[in-house]
Amino acid sequence: MADGFNQEEGDSENRIHIMNDEGQIVSKRMVENHFTIPEPDSEDGRSGINKQPEEWLPITQSRKGNSWTATFHLLCSGIGTQTLSLPLAFVYLGWFWGILCLCVAFVWQLYTIGLLVSLHESVPGTRYSRYLQLSIAAFGVKLGKVMAIFPVLYLAGGTCVMFIIAGGGTMKLFYQLMCDDCSSKHPLTTTEWFLVFICLTILLSLFCPNLHSVSLVSLFGAIMAVGYCTTLWVMMVAKGKVDGAVYDPSKVVASDAGRARSTLNALAIIALAFRGHNVVLEIQGTLPSTPNRSSAKSMLKGVRASYLIIAMCFFPVAIVGYWAFGNKIPVNGGMLTAISTNIHHNASKPVLGMIYVQVVLSCVSAFQIYSMVIYDNLEHAYVSRTSHECPKLVRMGIRIFFGGMTFFISVVFPFLPSLALLVGGFALHLTFGYPCLMWIVMKRQPTSIRWWFTLGLGCLGLGLSVLVIVSGVWNLVCRGLDANFFHPR
């Protein structure tokens, strides 16, 4: 009798009670989905199986960060060479619309960062420390993976490729600047400079097993990024305007179709200047969280501090750059190309050399943050298959493999920067669209004004992504493509 009672009590946890048409309560057994964890073969395996897999992966291995480290990561990942193209957007939009669009984009992306930070611990006891995890929680397993896994990995890997092209190319510029009178008859080719750059990043990554361990590197990279932005606009103020600078957008293009295309290009340049949203949740995942103090408080401090500094970089570069060069801003390369050509002979070598070095070191540092997303996914695949932590040798192999892969892509497709609008548009919704849509799905407050506002913002974000892709395709049709496969210049 007792055994029957115990069996019935155990089964009751898997039963559901419903009322039939006659008013009687009927108990039915629920169908269970079983997931079996394989038995470890050794005593070490039995002790390791109890350890949380989150503690094995690079993103969440260490949660000892604070608002300072979050600020360093956000600054290092948020400022890049794309900032130097902002004056080009003003060439197409003019003063008023250029400043207005830049302000709107800045506030918009800052709002979506706030949404991501608030969703990190939106479910009590659960932390979404990866963009993909939050997407799955919001849209379900199948749809969440379809909507996020490709854009997240594509953006992280593609950004690393862009770092190689920008960093390696700038190293070549630095060498040419400092060694134009050198006696070497065999200077390094651009491909070899790419190789030097990726070797530096791989070597540095071997000493950074997890995202928190990159904190000092991020601090250094943030100083370099803020440094070259500040040095550039201060130098332009000191040098003054370029002769013949014009500030009339109507004189840049004559036809209506050309003006429409240039306007789309300007919006795309401004939108793509803001980056790093695909690593915001990962950065917050390095912060500790307790019942008394959630990670959101420390993260929001880091967001406020970092984006105040980012604004102090973006707006002066855009405004002063346009003031100094007007419509003479180069289409490819932005301010970095401008200072290498227009005022090359008027600026001192040490100043230009310092800017080049800062750009290279900033790219090397930011590479560590974005590549950590790829390392985390590859190590997660290993842990899922073996139920063991990644050995150091495997981690080293993953970093060398990814570095070699990105180097190969940068050599095969060295013209990717000329397709920045097209390739960037495919992941732009991660910044302006998806955070809004994930928030409205998880909050479910249709009666709230903020809910409807965020829904509209999310739809606009998806539309903006489509417009940027259209702009990239339109440019490709009008300008063509100099596809120098395997021949970086």
From TrEMBL:
Give the record's keywords alphabetically. Amino-acid transport, Membrane, Transmembrane, Transmembrane helix, Transport
Output one GO MF annotation: amino acid transmembrane transporter activity
Give the CC-aspect GO terms. Answer: membrane
Q: What subcellular locations does the record give? A: Membrane
Show where the Amino acid transporter transmembrane domain sits.
64-474
Query: Which residue ranges traverse the bilayer?
Result: 95-119, 156-175, 187-207, 213-234, 305-325, 355-375, 396-413, 419-440, 452-477
GO BP annotations listed: amino acid transmembrane transport
Keyword hit for Transmembrane helix? yes
* Primary site of residence: membrane
Q: Give the range the annotation lists for the signal sequence.
A: none
According to its UniProt record, what is one Pfam family this protein matches? Aa_trans
Task: Tell me what this protein is called.
Answer: Amino acid transporter transmembrane domain-containing protein
Q: Which organism is it from?
A: Lactuca sativa (Garden lettuce)
Classification from the root reads:
Eukaryota, Viridiplantae, Streptophyta, Embryophyta, Tracheophyta
